[in-house]
């Protein structure tokens, strides 16, 4: 005869075993989900305060806005983006300190930012040494020339700005120009590039002046340019905070409007127009298509991209769109796309994927990178704009 209690014992044991197995499976499932949801750590260094805040502040707003949108949509490859932000206030030494912190303490996997050429170049050796992909949002051509294995950038270069301006000068038959250069990193870099490419366009630089990042009056320099013989146009290469707006106001106060003034692409925001006031009327500059999206023909592949970004940015921030916000958006979207194509955050694989970016339609243009080109934008990605009635007007 079989004892009832002895019959129940194996069933109880089996039930306990099944429960234990279920707990183990659930635990493994949770661990797997936790691993799958491990955040992708992005380091972001921008100049959100200080003299270059007009660059860094809109960039930060765009990045926060889109990182939040991406995470709400499920993240990237099933993982949320975790952004670690630092404000270098436009100081190269602070930027390098934060770069080191991102590598050694925060253990980030990818870095975006560098609002200015100076802060970017201060951080480059840190990320190159750590072998971490770095996408700059600054303008200097020396960021990507010569090509550095781990360094990329999203906006056009200062050289492209010179080329776009000089092409317009040539079309207007203005061949004798004066340069006035800011002593900031972008200003000195763009000045050097303008000097280098001027002969290619038959442009002769007949006078030069410079101004410092803290100067509050450029009248003496402008008077010298006004009195220089043969000057047919003035090109400002300085992008040092309010410097370009002060220069433009001084230009207007001196009644120099008969001499066309060209500004550099670093002033491509509505804040410049507001700061410069009426003196900005007629000023020309190269800028991305983002600023004149509605003026683009329907056949332009960038039109839908820039209009969609403008709508999201302006509704999300309550501020007018700027090219600096667009540059940050492009940087983020190219990094996200590279992570997807690399199917992970292995630095070498993400780097390789970034280098293979082809046909990306962004706010700056259509990007086609290669091992020899870590920017991937043509010169004509810059549109030539003129300030008209307090707004941007597409010239060509």
The total count of helices amounts to: 12
Order of helices and strands: HEHEHEHEEHEHEHEHEHEHHHEEEE
CATH superfamily of the largest domain: Response regulator
CATH C-level name of the largest domain: Alpha Beta
Query: How is the main sheet built?
Result: 5 strands, parallel
In round numbers, the mean pLDDT is 90
Domain Leucine-binding protein: 39-389
Protein name: Amino acid/amide ABC transporter substrate-binding protein, HAAT family
Pfam families: Peripla_BP_6 (PF13458)
Keywords: Amino-acid transport, Signal, Transport
Structure write-up:
There is one protein chain. The chain is of the alpha/beta class. It has two domains: 40-156 and 299-379, Response regulator (Rossmann fold, 3-Layer(aba) Sandwich), CATH 3.40.50.2300; 159-287, Response regulator (Rossmann fold, 3-Layer(aba) Sandwich), CATH 3.40.50.2300. It has twelve helices and 14 strands. The strands form four sheets. A five-stranded parallel β-sheet has the order 2-1-3-4-5, sandwiched between helices. A hairpin with a 2-residue loop joins strand 13 (383-388) and strand 14 (391-394). Helix 8 (243-253) runs parallel beside helix 9. The protein is globular and about 65 Å long. Mean pLDDT is 90; it is low at 1-10 and 20-35.
């Amino acid at each position: 005869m079989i004892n009832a209690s002895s019959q129940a014992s194996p069933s109880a044991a089996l039930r306990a075993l099944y429960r234990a197995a279920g707990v183990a499976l659930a635990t493994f499932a949770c661990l797997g989900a936790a691993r799958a949801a491990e955040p992708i750590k992005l380091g972001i260094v921008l100049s959100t305060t200080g003299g270059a805040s007009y660059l860094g502040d809109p960039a930060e707003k765009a990045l926060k806005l889109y990182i939040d949108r991406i995470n709400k949509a499920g993240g990237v490859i099933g993982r949320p983006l975790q952004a670690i932000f630092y404000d270098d206030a436009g100081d190269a030494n602070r930027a390098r300190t934060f770069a080191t912190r991102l590598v050694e303490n925060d253990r980030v996997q990818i870095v975006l930012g560098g609002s200015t050429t100076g802060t970017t170049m201060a951080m480059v050796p840190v990320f190159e040494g750590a072998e971490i992909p770095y996408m700059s949002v600054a303008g200097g051509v020396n960021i990507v020339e010569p090509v550095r294995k781990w360094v990329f950038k999203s906006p056009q270069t200062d050289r492209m700005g010179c080329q776009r301006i000089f092409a317009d000068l040539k079309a207007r038959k203005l061949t004798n120009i004066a340069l006035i250069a800011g002593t900031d990193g972008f200003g000195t870099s763009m000045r050097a590039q303008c000097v280098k490419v001027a002969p290619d366009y038959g442009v002769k630089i007949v006078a030069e002046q410079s101004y410092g990042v803290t100067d509050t009056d450029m009248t003496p320099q402008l008077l010298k340019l006004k009195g220089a013989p043969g000057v047919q146009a003035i090109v400002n290469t300085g992008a040092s905070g309010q410097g370009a707006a002060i220069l433009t106001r001084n230009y207007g106060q001196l009644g120099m409007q008969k001499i066309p003034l060209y500004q550099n692409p670093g002033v491509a925001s509505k804040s410049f127009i507001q700061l410069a006031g009426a003196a900005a009327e007629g000023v020309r500059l190269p800028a991305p298509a983002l600023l004149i999206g509605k003026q683009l023909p329907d056949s332009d592949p960038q039109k839908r991209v820039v209009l969609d970004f403008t709508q999201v940015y302006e509704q999300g921030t309550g501020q007018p769109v700027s090219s600096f916000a667009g540059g940050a958006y492009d940087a983020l979207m190219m990094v996200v796309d590279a992570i997807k194509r690399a199917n992970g955050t292995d630095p070498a694989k993400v780097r390789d994927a970034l280098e293979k970016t082809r046909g990306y339609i962004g706010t700056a243009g259509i990007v086609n990178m290669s091992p020899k080109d870590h920017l991937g934008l043509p010169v004509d990605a810059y549109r030539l704009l003129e300030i008209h009635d307090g707004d941007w007007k597409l010239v060509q």
